[in-house]
Every structure is written in structure tokens, then in C-alpha cells.
Design brief:
Growth Hormone, Chain: A; disordered C terminus; globular; 19 helices; mainly alpha
Length: about 425
């Protein structure tokens, strides 16, 4: 039964889906513990000597580095994913992300090595982005290229579930630490534990991924000698419109998520003076809505079409922008409703988007194309979102942050409308 060739097709598909899920869970766990630490501890430990807002903005600047590293990872890992195979590339991406995350847990702080500390932090953050840039596209393809007809969105939502699960694990870890350790203990060494614990998760992920086989669609491309020598060159030469539309179709997904996580946590604990021990559990409840709506909208996308479901979800996000300030300012009860609505809408857009971004690209450049679209969307939609939202809130109030979110929804709706008008061969 350990031989992948002897197990039943159902068991093999189950193994593939679990491998796509466990990998993205680990990757997003690693990514989110950085996001949480960027709010809770990095401003004081790596950027001391500045006022709280400036330190927070500096911490958010290192947070954004990963988004600019992700397209580099998409090109590098995408090349090998389209040339060598999905399986081997996914293993390498997971290793890159894992090593970078564990290294953050071992870094000296500014008090020990001065300016070298934030530079090392930025380097490790770049490594995180590099690994995640190659992870997402491969995980989605691992699932969708094994999917039966009419089940692309359903299979493609399994790696998407790694996002809320990874967030729950990371936030849960910080909740436990902040409730069991004193402030001094947490700041001295407690914050390092979630980063170091990532080593165990990476080992589990590698063990699972080494047991899977190559996807049938990629294997057919190999058998037919269809692979191209330079997938990135082919992508930019012949699939520019698919890349452009795919990028902007994901802008709202990223903007909403990082407003709901990094910005919301930072503003609630600094701008509103709420205790992080009160905000983190409320945020965690919201993530349950995120997880719940991913499979729901994946099923709807397979039935009614990916573009239609994504447009409806984006309209909902735009309307949510008008509620941003009233709910955020209504205390913990309003904050709970805020997180439930925002994360629920996040699940609505996140369920179908994996299959939607992968489908317009042919097998020979699909790893590179889907990865680039997803990660370029991250740059446009999220890399500066916490920074810009904090600046808008400080200078113009939370209503301006809601307007920023609504504007991103309009951009995404226009891109999705363009996707719906592409040729039948690439119709989503």
C-alpha cells in the first residue's frame, strides 16, 4: 500500500488532496506567524527608538518584502514546475519557506546586533516570500490536475483551506503564549516558539509530499514532448492577457485578507487600545467563517461558473467597505460582526479563485502562469495594504480604509468581467 502505483484511484486522489492541503497549511502558518509578530513584537524588538506608529510602519515595510519576493519565487519554481514536474518543485518550495521561518526564530534582536537585526529579518522575510511564491501554484495544480470533469473548483479549494487552517494554528499559538507567559517572557523568548515549531510541520509536509506521484496532465505533456524550454518567456509572449486579468482578479482577495488580519489587529491594539488577548480570539472566530465559506463557494463555482461566483463575492466585499468603520468602532461586539462578515466574504472569493487562476493557462506554462498571477495580485492588493490602511486611518479615519477596500473590489470586478469575455478555449 505504500507504493503509489498499487493504491486505488480514490485513495490516490485522497492522498493528493491531503498533500496539497498540508503543504499550504504549513506555508500559510509560516506566513501568518510573521504577520502576527510584525504587529505584536517586531516593532519593539527590531525597530526600537521610534514612536509606536513609526515602528509599526517599519515592521509592516519588512512584511511587504515577501510580496515582492513572491513573483521571483513564482518564476524560479514555476520554471522547474513546468519543466521538471509539480512534485519535486513543491518539495523545494516547502523547504525554502521552512528554513526561512525557523531562521527567524533564531535571529538576534536590535538590542544585540543593532541595525544588522532588521536586515537579517528582511532577508528571512524575502526567503519566506520566495518559498510561498512557488508553493501556491504548485499546490493548486496538484489538486486541479487530478480533478475529474466538473470538479475543478472543488478540488482546487483544498489547498485554499490551508489558509484558514494555517491562520488558526498560528493565531492559536500566539493566544496560548500570550495567556501563559508574562509580557517579559513573551518578548524575551516566547515569540520565537511558533517560528521554531515550524520545523516539525515542515517535516510532516515533506513526508506526505514525497509519497505522491506526478499529476496526470503534466505526465501527458511529458509523454507528448510538449514542454517548452523557457516557460516564463512563453508566458509573457503568448499569454499576457490571461496573466493581466488573472492578476487583477485577485486584487480584492489579497486586500481584504490583509486588512482583516494585519491591519485590523494592529489598529485594534494600537489605534483603539484594545488588549491583544481580547482581539485575537475574536479574530479567530472570524476565521472560522473564512473556512466555512470556502467549500460552499467552490461547490457553487462548479455549478454556476467560477467568474459569476467571484463577481458576486467581490460585489459583497465592495458593500462591506461601507460597513468597515461603523462595525470597527462598535467595541468587541461590533468587532466580532466585523470579523465574521469580512472573513466570510474572504472565504467566498477564496474558494473558487485557485481553479479560476489556473485554468486560463495551458499545461506547459500553467505552474508559472498561475503562480505569477496569484503573486502579482499579492503585490498589487496586499504588499502595502497594512501600511496604506494605517496611514489612511491615521489621517482620514476608518471610513477611508473602507473606501480603499471598495475601490479594490471595483478593480477586481472589471478584471473578472474581462475573464468572462475570453475565448471558449480559456473560458472559466
Amino acid at each position: 500500500m505504500s507504493d503509489a502505483k498499487t493504491i486505488s484511484p480514490t485513495a490516490r486522489k485522497g492522498r493528493v488532496l491531503f498533500a496539497s492541503l498540508i503543504g499550504t497549511t504549513i506555508e500559510f502558518y509560516d506566513f501568518y506567524i510573521y504577520a502576527t509578530a510584525a504587529v505584536l513584537v517586531f516593532p519593539r524588538l527590531f525597530f526600537p527608538g521610534a514612536d509606536p506608529t513609526t515602528a509599526m510602519l517599519s515592521s509592516f515595510a519588512t512584511f511587504s518584502i515577501a510580496f515582492f519576493a513572491r513573483p521571483v519565487g513564482a518564476l524560479a519554481f514555476g520554471h522547474f514546475g513546468d519543466r521538471v514536474g509539480r512534485k519535486a518543485t513543491l518539495v523545494a518550495a516547502l523547504m525554502t519557506m521552512g528554513v526561512s521561518t525557523v531562521a527567524i526564530g533564531l535571529l538576534p534582536t536590535h538590542a544585540s546586533v543593532g541595525i544588522i537585526a532588521p536586515l537579517l529579518l528582511a532577508l528571512c522575510r524575502f526567503g519566506q516570500g520566495l518559498g510561498l511564491g512557488g508553493e501556491w501554484g504548485g499546490a493548486v495544480l496538484l489538486a486541479t490536475e487530478n480533478a475529474p470533469p466538473g470538479k475543478k473548483a472543488w478540488f482546487g479549494m483544498f489547498p485554499q483551506l490551508g489558509a484558514p487552517i494555517g491562520f488558526i494554528l498560528s493565531t492559536g499559538a500566539f493566544i496560548v503564549l500570550t495567556s501563559t507567559l508574562s509580557e517579559a517572557q513573551f518578548e524575551a523568548w516566547g515569540w520565537r516558539l511558533p517560528f521554531l515549531a515550524s520545523a516539525v510541520l515542515v517535516f510532516v509536509g515533506l513526508w506526505v509530499r514525497l509519497k505522491i506521484t506526478e499529476t496526470p496532465e503534466f505526465q501527458k505533456a511529458v509523454d507528448r514532448n510538449e514542454r517548452v524550454k523557457a516557460p516564463a518567456v512563453t508566458l509573457f509572449a503568448h499569454h499576457k492577457m490571461a496573466l493581466f486579468l488573472g492578476t487583477f482578479s485577485g486584487v480584492t482577495t489579497f486586500t481584504l485578507f490583509y486588512l482583516m488580519t494585519v491591519f485590523a489587529l494592529g489598529w485594534a491594539t494600537t489605534g483603539m487600545g484594545l488588549a491583544r488577548g481580547d482581539v485575537l480570539p475574536v479574530q479567530l472566530i472570524g476565521v472560522l467563517f473564512f473556512a466555512a465559506f470556502i467549500p460552499v463557494t467552490a461547490l457553487l463555482a462548479d455549478k454556476y461558473g467560477q467568474v459569476k461566483v467571484l463577481i458576486a463575492s467581490s460585489v459583497g466585499i465592495g458593500l462591506f467597505g461601507a460597513l468597515f468603520a461603523p462595525l470597527f468602532d462598535a467595541g468587541l461586539t461590533g468587532l466580532l460582526i466585523f470579523f465574521a462578515l469580512g472573513f466570510g466574504l474572504m472565504g467566498c472569493t477564496y474558494g473558487p479563485i485557485g481553479a479560476a487562476m489556473a485554468r486560463p493557462f495551458p499545461t506547459t506554462v500553467r505552474y508559472t502562469g498561475a503562480s505569477m498571477a496569484f503573486n502579482l495580485a499579492g503585490i498589487v492588493g496586499a504588499s502595502l495594504a497594512p501600511y496604506l490602511a494605517t496611514w489612511l486611518a491615521r489621517n482620514y479615519g476608518l471610513a477611508a480604509v473602507g473606501g480603499y477596500l471598495a475601490l479594490s473590489a471595483v478593480v477586481t470586478i472589471l478584471a473578472l468581467w474581462g475573464m468572462g469575455r475570453v475565448s471558449p478555449e480559456t473560458e472559466l
